[in-house]
Amino acid sequence: SFNSLNHDMTLAEFKFIWYMEYSHRMWGRVVGLAYILPAAYFWRRGWLSRPLKGRVLALCGLVCFQGLLGWYMVKSGLEEKPDSYDIPRVSQYRLAAHLGSALVLYSASLWTGLSLLLPRHKLPETHQLLRLRQYAHGTTALIFLTALSGAFVAGLDAGLVYNSFPKMGERWIPDDLLAFSPVLRNIFENPTTVQFDHRILGIASVTAVAALYLFSRKIPLPRRTRMAVTSLLAVACMQ
């Protein structure tokens, strides 16, 4: 990396990058200990129910897997590629896996915590409520996919290709959208296609969240649920 990209880097500039990486690793280890040590204590005291024990073990495994994925990702940026003259960078596939794993871990931890802290509302299972729940699940999947596409943008530095919006340069659909062969490879390895997909997914996510909010206004919902939907719309717009 030093020879091909940062040959003019000073020691102070290197230290800045090094400390960022070091802090990230240490923070990850602190997060792991903050989860595993209390979980072991609660387990030993007999405070965990049988279903909760399974969930705790799954989350514990996910914490360890997340750290392993982080190491595997960084390793890809340090490997020698004799046939490549590209800028050294981590694999966009491993970066997306690392981010996706972190999102699953965070969501599962939050869901578990809120399930224990807040009693579940018992609402009549009307057709409208079922549709709202299904739509919320679909919106969640769309947002997750959008976030993963962002990891591919970061991994390929695809944000540097076009910096205009809503058009990409002078065109709505750029010429090099499907420049790679086979066509499927463009989705994951062509910076133009990766940025184009991320834009489309981002717009689709905001639209889906707005539609979810409007649909929820037609259904009598508890105050806590209404606050959650409104907060989701606010965060989507801010994002």
UniProtKB/TrEMBL annotation:
It catalyses: Fe(II)-heme o + 2 A + H2O = Fe(II)-heme a + 2 AH2. Keywords: Heme biosynthesis, Iron, Membrane, Metal-binding, Oxidoreductase, Transmembrane, Transmembrane helix. GO terms for molecular function: heme A synthase activity; metal ion binding; oxidoreductase activity, acting on NAD(P)H, heme protein as acceptor. GO terms for cellular component: mitochondrial inner membrane. GO terms for biological process: heme A biosynthetic process. The chain crosses the membrane at residues 26-44, 56-74, 94-118, 139-162, 198-216. It comes from the Eukaryota. Its cofactor is heme b. Pathway: Porphyrin-containing compound metabolism; heme A biosynthesis; heme A from heme O: step 1/1. It is found in: Membrane. It is a multi-pass membrane protein. This is COX15 protein. It comes from Mohoua ochrocephala.
